[in-house]
Design goal:
disordered N terminus; Rossmann fold; about 425 residues; 11 helices; alpha/beta; 4-stranded antiparallel beta sheet
Length: about 425
């Protein structure tokens, strides 16, 4: 039996005849009501009473992407779509530049950020293949690993995380930032060398772990690459691009700016922009690796989905000025910038991704405006709020509080506070 839905401009069917172990506890059909706002923003309203998110939906890509090869066939609903676009008073940009921000940090609470869009397809594929565990990899403060741990637990799947770490002793790892949520979700974590490469070091370990889970527990495991960045996860931001179209970005902006760390979001947005004939200019600020590395990743994606009419270099500008001291390593300037942005605009940026990208954007706008098509810029906030609690930013605030004390001692009612 199938029940039809309309979500994000895409036709879905609720698959209620999938294998029983994948749909235990599902007693409700999700209802979706489509409305149109003043900014042509189609919003999908869901009723959640009795709803369980391991309900598999059949998936059909947007019309402009239906011809692509290797498209996924199923999806699960895990996040709140149509995150808002808001005006952003970003400090440090030229006065004639208009910056807005796409709030994909508002996709959920513990599921905040861009990774959940990809995981709707990746975890659906895991369920449809009768997997009982997922394995993925990233850094100790990986947003992708945290989001996977939370979403997998929500779907009743075991989570196994391979974490690149400078620390070798698990007892010294702590429970700050994303690590706290990993622990709360009961994720099994394995520390691997900080410079472990995906193809030569991580994938063999993931396969070894898959075999061990099968032998010791009799369960199948589904492996997810770094950042969820493969042709299945790609559809998270092909649909994300459709969402942006529905929000009228083609007429409202000249340039879109995002952070790139694994390449999946950059691939989805740039390929969507190309396939729909949009003339927006896409920019990705790299916080690790090189422009050549990410162009290679996107070109491999283009080949896999059957697009041979364009190369990555022709559909996205990848800027290398955001890396700083290295992936996950912050400079005082970057942390001060995050502090300033929060204080002046209330937008929270994380030290690993969006903080570095936004700072690099302000510098690039001052240095070379010719790289940008116009003065109307949309910044895609990809989340990462839990990374703010890894300890670095707190230390910066504590160290600088002597010059600008935000916390005062007023235990004595006869005393007077100092007003700043």
């Amino acid at each position: 039996m199938f029940t039809h839905h309309l979500m994000n401009g895409i036709s879905h069917k609720v698959i209620s005849n999938v294998k029983q172990q994948n749909v235990v506890g599902i007693f409700m059909t999700r209802k979706c009501v489509l409305s149109v706002s003043a900014v042509s923003n189609h919003r999908c309203r869901h009723t959640h009473s009795g709803f369980t998110s391991n309900q598999l939906l059949s998936y059909t890509p947007p019309d402009w992407a239906k011809h692509l090869k290797m498209s996924p066939s199923v999806q699960v609903q895990l996040f709140q779509p149509f995150t808002p676009i808001q005006k952003w008073n970003l400090p440090g940009v030229p006065s004639d530049i208009e910056v807005c921000i796409k709030r994909d940090d508002m996709t959920g609470c513990a599921l905040s950020g861009n990774k959940i869009r990809k995981l709707e397809f990746l975890l659906a594929e895991a369920l449809s293949n009768d997997c009982k565990a997922v394995i993925t990899c990233g850094g100790v403060q990986s947003n992708h690993c945290r989001t996977t741990a939370v979403a997998a637990r929500q779907l009743g799947l075991e989570t196994h995380l391979l974490l690149r770490s400078r620390i070798k002793d698990p007892c010294e790892l702590g429970s700050n930032g994303n690590m706290l949520l990993n622990r709360l979700m009961g994720a099994s974590m394995y520390l691997v060398p900080i410079k472990a490469q995906e193809k030569t070091d991580l994938i063999p370990r993931m396969q070894q772990l898959t075999n061990k889970l099968k032998k010791s527990k009799g369960i199948k495991a589904y492996s997810i690459p770094i950042g969820g960045s493969n042709v299945t996860g790609l559809h998270g931001y092909l649909n994300g691009w459709q969402e942006l179209l529905d929000q009228g970005v083609i007429n409202r902006f000249d340039d879109i700016v995002l952070t790139v760390g694994s390449g999946g979001t950059a691939a989805g947005i740039s390929i969507g922009n190309y396939l729909t004939g949009s003339h927006l200019r896409i920019h990705a600020f790299a916080v690790c690796d090189t422009a050549a590395y990410f162009h290679s990743h996107i070109n491999e994606t283009l080949d896999s989905i059957g697009i041979d009419t364009v190369r990555s270099e022709g559909i996205i500008n990848i800027h290398e000025g955001a890396k700083g001291l290295g992936y996950g390593i912050s400079k005082p300037e970057e942390l001060e910038f995050i502090k300033t942005v929060a204080k002046e605009s209330s937008i929270l940026l994380d030290p690993t991704y969006t903080g570095k990208a936004a700072l690099a954007l302000t510098k690039e706008l001052m240095r070379d405006r010719s790289k940008f098509k116009g003065r109307r810029i949309l910044f895609l906030h990809s989340g990462g709020i839990f990374g703010m609690f890894d300890g670095q930013l707190g230390d910066t605030l504590t160290q600088s509080s002597g010059a600008d004390p935000l916390v005062q001692n007023w235990m004595n009612p006869d005393g007077e506070p100092t007003i700043y």
